[in-house]
Amino acid sequence: xxxxxLAGGCxxxxxxxxxxxxxxxxTVVGYANGKTEDPSYQDVCGGSGHAETVKIxxxxxxxxxxxLIGYYFRAIDPxxxxxxxxxxxxxxxxxxxxxxxxxxPDIEAAVNSEKLALGEKAAKFAVEVMPLENFYPAEEYHQxxxxxxxxxxxxxxxxxxxxxxxxRPAEYSDSKN
Length: 177
Fold this sequence. Notes:
By secondary structure, this protein is of the alpha+beta class. Helix content is 28%, strand content 23%.
């Protein structure tokens, strides 16, 4: 099992997005790389410097790190500074955070691939890539928020929640042999 921390704007949608993929064992939303210890949502909204982040535990033999980060880039605007969709503020910045140095070559390869695809725009690349400084799980009402509240706000387009089904339709078939 591997663990990576991804900040991609509002963590409700980011968590729901990653929960769809085979190989994801668990996701927890929380606050990362801020200045204060054990912040509340109000602290984060008030400028604690934390990013809304999803802790992802995954099986790298099923979902390789580079592919996982490739999905991440489908769900964010890598050129946007402190904003994803209509959500603005430092807590909505984008970032790839790690605690396991062995992930760094795959992280860098995925980032370099994204920058190559961006061409001239790559100079405006706004995704932090750095070791995790701290992570505090968010309050319980934020965990799996869009499962608990299917009509809740989300900055991500709904079609992003169907990627896994489109890529592996046989696994989602209702037909019986």
